Amino acid sequence: MTDDNDGTTFRLGRLVFGLGMALQASEDFRDMDDTVEYAESAGVPLPDLLAPLASGMMFVGGLGVAFWRLPRLATGAVASFLAVVTLTMHDFWNADPEDRDGERLAFFGNMAMFGAALAFLREAWSGD
Predict the structure, then answer these.
(1) Which of 38, 75, 86, 91 holds its CA 20 to 30 A away from the CA of 1?
(2) pLDDT averaged over consecutive 10-residue blocks of the chain (128 residues)?
(3) Taking Cα atoms as reference points, which of 118, 117, 123 lies closest to residue 58?
(4) 29 near 66, Cβ under 8 Å?
């Protein structure tokens, strides 16, 4: 791992990233009706089942990354979540003109988080 001597920067980055993912998922759970409706509007099959499942995956994965518990599973769950959601839920290129800017912003934000998830996933598999 290329980091400071005691890994503080890596741990802080994990904590901020993982808790951010978990907190976003908790917001989804807090307003699950809107989350399901949004998934349905994006054409997600079985949105009543898959929206809570995806939010749960993001919540548990986020906590796992933050506290580095089952790191391969946690980082894999977060990376998988972001890969699927970024392309399916935030396809700004197909969005209505009034929604395009918001979807593009969400797409690029998710893309940045996906990059961080991949970096953490690499670290989880390297075991350094």
Answers:
(1) 86
(2) 73 97 96 94 93 96 98 97 92 90 94 96 86
(3) 117
(4) no
